[in-house]
Amino acid sequence: MMAKQKTERPPTIETVNIGAAAVDIGSREHMAAVNPDVTDTPVRAFGTFTHDLHDLADWFKSHGVTSVAMESTGVYWIPAYEILEQHGFEVVLVNARYAKNVPGRKTDVSDASWLRQLHSYGLLRGSFRPSAQIATLRAYLRQRERLVEYAAAHIH
């Protein structure tokens, strides 16, 4: 009996999103990663103030980024999301549980690189984010609900 020869190679994952980047959102700084083939420093830290987020968008544009993945951590992602969207990027909001289950990533630097790599392969699914008009309406409705609750408490 002849032994079977393996002729097939293991499947490889192909890059489907060449302009992919990622941001690991933090309370004090954001770690951003771009394609390591286009720069010597593919990962960079940015502050959380508005001017820092505009610098982040400019850095992404200078490296040919078209789409950005970011984790939805607390409320820290909201200003980054809005500013990147204003600059014309496709922003994909990712639930942190989907990307965190892979071992071997211990720092924010590698988290950002890992997110970028997954995003470049098209493996990240974005969370629902309503349009700006709906988000504004939801904020008004929440505020109204709070005011009605406070008024009821004062009446009692």
TrEMBL record:
This is Transposase IS110-like N-terminal domain-containing protein. Residues 22-153 form the Transposase IS110-like N-terminal domain. It comes from the Bacteria. Keywords: Plasmid. Pfam families: DEDD_Tnp_IS110. Transmembrane segments: none annotated. One of its GO terms (molecular function) is transposase activity. It comes from Sulfitobacter pontiacus. One of its GO terms (biological process) is DNA transposition. InterPro entries: Transp_IS110-like_N, Transpos_IS110.
